[in-house]
Amino acid sequence: MLRQQLNDALKAAMLGKQPRTVSTVRLILAALKDRDIAARSRGVMDGIGDDEILSMFQSMIKQRRESITLYEQGGRIDLAQQEAEEIVIIERFLPVQMSEAEAGAAIAAVIAEVGAGGIKDMGRVMAALKERFAGRMDFGKASGLVKKALGG
């Protein structure tokens, strides 16, 4: 489903003469192809699933946010703006993000479900969250909330 959305977005951007969108979607498709090739070594011949694609989007957004910070520190506002535009384009393919309250409730439910009792169980909780909420939850923030909930 996401693959089709990406291809449709590329065609629409090309027809609409939107160079930033074209280049960003091409970057996404190239990263997707790289991940598909890497997945073949794990025996996944059909390409990665939507959950992994959503995770890839999250990492691409995280990389761009880090780049924005560095560009702003270096006085390259033009490049920071370009990265911000790419984030907006990538976010169009993500499902609606959970609010902090929804994320907190989901974290509490997963902690109870896996029977997590302390910080040593953080890995199991994060794995369950990533499995269920890929693309909908910011796992950078979720990590801090999980640590806090587990008393770390």
Short description:
The mean pLDDT is about 90. The protein has about 150 residues and is mainly α.
Q: Distance N terminus to C terminus?
A: 39 Å
Q: Which structural class do the helices and strands define?
A: mainly alpha
Q: How many structural domains does the protein architecture include?
A: 2
Q: Bin the helical content.
A: over 70%
Major sheet description: none
Q: What shape does the CA trace take?
A: globular
Count of helical regions: 7
Order of helices and strands: HHHHHHH
CATH class group of the largest domain = Mainly Alpha
DSSP E strands, number: 0
What is the second-level CATH architecture of the largest domain?
A: Orthogonal Bundle
Topology, pairings included?
Blueprint: H1 2-15, H2 19-40, H3 50-73, H4 77-91, H5 100-114, H6 122-133, H7 139-149
Task: Give keywords.
152 residues, mainly alpha, Hypothetical Protein Yqey, Chain: A, domain1, Arc Repressor Mutant, subunit A
